[in-house]
Amino acid sequence: MTGLFEKLGSISLNTFQRIGEIWLLFARTLTYCGKAFANRRLITVQMVEIGVNTVPLVAVIAVFTGMVIAVQTGYQMMRFHAQGLVGPIVGLSITRELGPVMTGVIVAGRVGAAMAAQVGTMKVTEQIDALETLATDPAEYLVMPRFIAAAIMLPILAVCADVVGIIGGLLIAVTQLGEDGGLYITRTFQQLEISDVMSGLIKSAFFGMIVAIISCYQGLTATGGAEGVGKATTRAVVLSLTLILVSDFFLTVLILGGKPG
């Protein structure tokens, strides 16, 4: 029994230590954000990697997500002769929830893993130690450009997902449900409000910050050569996905003020 409590205590202490280290890395990164203009080249490179190179994947997944929502809701609405609600349902579902979350998950899987692997490789090959020897803080040179790029590009990717997802729903509404395309668009934008789009963009920015900080932290704490880098990459993706889904709930409650709608 004593051994069990010792193990639980060790796990708890290790967990709280890691949480503290992540918050310290986040705070250090924020202090360097004022130097963003001086590091604009590094930020631009990361924006291309995080944003531009991820657009095709986001577009493919978003269009089929919109089509699936339209199929599922369309045939249900046909029972009540309410096919005209398909557009608003697709639009609200994508902009408020699925667009930001889907984008965050894609970036965590594609870019977060790459971030952790890149930084982790630098760690195990002692390149991080070389930076510190040259009085360069890894939080400034490695983390801050990725942090800012992710916070900027995730909302842009979410907008792309929103547009493509709505178009995917339009294709199904016109070809399978017999709805007029112009009426679909009109009804969708009649129901969409700026607050719906903005809530999704706010979530996306937070998701980008989460992916960047968690992935870089896992890379900076990687040990044990190639095997350690692989484990750090896995932890980065799993923890990023978990925090995205958990924070999505709390952000939704906060944005909505605790009220549905």
Features:
261 residues; mainly alpha; 84% helix; 0% strand; elongated
Query: What is the number of independent domains?
Result: 1
The radius of gyration computed from the alpha-carbon positions, rounded to a whole number of angstroms, is 21 Å
Give me the strand/helix succession: HHHHHHHHH
**Largest sheet composition:** none
How large is the share of residues in beta strands? Answer: under 5%
- Tell me the helix content: over 70%
Structural class by SSE content? mainly alpha
Spans where pLDDT lies below 50 across 5 or more residues = none
Could you report the average pLDDT, rounded to the nearest whole number?
89
In whole angstroms, how far apart are the ends?
A: 49 Å
Task: Explain how this protein is built.
By secondary structure, this protein is mainly alpha-helical. The chain has one domain. The protein has 9 helices and no strands. The protein has helices spanning 2-32, 40-50, 55-78, 86-124, 127-133, 138-175, 181-191, 194-220, 225-256. The termini are far apart.
Which SSEs are present, and which pair or pack?
Layout: H1 2-32, H2 40-50, H3 55-78, H4 86-124, H5 127-133, H6 138-175, H7 181-191, H8 194-220, H9 225-256
In summary, what is this structure?
With 261 residues, the protein is mainly alpha-helical.
